[in-house]
Amino acid sequence: MSSTASGKSGTWRNWGGNVVCRPAREVTPASVDELAAAVRRAAEDGLPVKAVGTGHSFTSIAATDGVLIRPQLLTGIRDIDREAMTVTVEAGTPLKRLNLALAREGLSLTNMGDIMEQTVSGATATGTHGTGRESASIAAQIRGLELVTADGSVLTCSEKENPDVFAAARIGLGALGVVTAITFAVEPVFLLTAREEPMPFDKVLTDFDELWAENEHFEFYWFPHTGNTNTKRNNRSAGPRRPVGRLTGWFEDEFLSNGVFQAAQWVGRAVPATVPAIAEVSSRALSARSYTDIPYKVFTSPRRVRFVEMEYAVPREAVTETLRELRAMIERSPLRISFPVEVRTAPADDITLSTASGRDSAYIAVHMAKGSPYRGYFTAAERIFTAHGGRPHWGKIHTRDAEYFAEVYPRFGEFTALRDRLDPDRRFQNDYLRRVLGQ
Fold first, then answer.
1. Are 195 and 214 in contact (CB under 8 A)?
2. Cα angle at 252 between 249 and 289, to 5 degrees?
3. Per the count of CB atoms within 10 A, which of 110, 156, 162, 223 is most buried?
4. 41 contacts 56 by C-beta, under 8 angstroms
5. What pLDDT sits at residue 277?
């Protein structure tokens, strides 16, 4: 699994290995009642509470020295409503299990991120997203939520019931309560045709608006120190299904994307001067291909090379300018970047602290291999992103605080006021929330 807890010493580490905490105790509730009781008991003992998923966040959003709640027993589908086209799942359900279960029922989410190891509650609480012209983040597909609040009571919310909580809690950062179940909108399973092909960086930037407008889901990876990108367009298809062959899939997705890439990271770290040459070879290794399959087999892919990541959402109209500045910064600097930069988009949504709240957005993600010194690169990139009013992904590395968020989120005060009401004693507080939401 992606999170690790080393037994007796009670140490918890995240997937990227950059966050460690030692909770006073860990609880694995088997029901909503047990979870509510754990929250009440924590209050009696004066301990803060945090729920943790699979540890895929690179920030300390789930870290606590109080009570750590692990939701792995709260899994599975509670209900499928084919009339309303919704599915209600327990909060600890991994996205992978949800996707498989829905496919068996002939159903699918409309859009998803590119990995599916996270729990549904962890992924939505931090604003996990894929790429889409009209379809937005996983949280934007939520139709209802159940959460245990600070006093141990169970609150349900939707557009009709507690709408003010619903507006904020879909991306709640773990600050409003512990989510115990989520109701998602689903649709009959459909086919997507993926077209992956290399394209020069300058051409992608020149044609970006066109590529975005002509495709339901467009994304690309740029390899720093080169003029090369790999683009991916996913569009709905009438079929037939033409999945990636097993051997081709293994060679391209496992051997090249994970195996050779891992080796390139090791060489690059040992001899930084080789990075531009390796990047040139890596960026040309993947050839064009096209395949048609059900959504989760097209949207998601395995990520076995561990890394740390920073990702910012900038206004969509600012993306090409931001990328040009990023390239110029890397070219001017002594930095040697062996990980591609990932670019995706999302339409504006109505979730209070969504990175796409109220504005069409483009996401730019920068990565470094786990264990490598990333601060110089991330700091320089962050300076560029924030100059464009960028909003950092809540689960990825950034240095922003409440003062900054009050500027870039018009409804920031709405969220903090709701938090004051639902958690006046800051039962769900930790250092990260203290920084990003203020006292």
1. no
2. 80
3. 223
4. no
5. 73
| Residue 379 CA to its chain's centroid (Å) | 20
Three-state DSSP class for residue 290:
strand
Token duo for residue 299: 């949207």
Instruction: Decide: helix, strand or coil at residue 257.
Output: helix
How far from chain centre, in Å, is Cα 65?
24
Angle between helical axes of 261-270 and 275-285 (0-180°, round to 10): 170
Query: What pLDDT score does 202 carry?
Result: 98
- What's the pLDDT tens digit per position in 59-113? 999 999 999 999 999 999 999 999 999 999 999 999 999 999 999 999 999 999 9
Rounded CA separation 300/354 (Å): 21
Assess contact for 124 and 183: CB atoms under 8 A: no
Backbone φ, ψ for residue 7 (5° rounding) = 40, -115
E strand or H helix at 422, and its extent? helix 412-422
Give the three-class secondary structure for 167.
helix
DSSP string, 63-128: --SSEEE--TTS-SEEEEETTTTEEEEETT-BHHHHHHHHHHTTEE-S---S---SBHHHHHHTT-
- Residue 280 · residue 225 · CB < 8 Å: yes
d(CA 53, CA 148): 16
- Give the distance from CA 268 to its chain's centroid: 26
Mind listing the pLDDT tens digit for each residue in 118-131?
A: 999 999 999 999 99
Is residue 176 within 8 Å of residue 162, measured between CB atoms? no
The DSSP H or E segment spanning 130 is: none
Q: Name 115's Cβ contacts closer than 8 Å, sequence gap at least 6.
A: 56, 300, 301, 302, 303
**Cis peptide leading into residue 240 (ω within 30°):** yes
DSSP-assigned letters across all residues of 175-203 = SS-EEEEEEEE-EE--EEEEEEEEEEHHH
Q: Give the DSSP H or E segment for 411.
A: none
Helix (H) or strand (E) holding 301: none
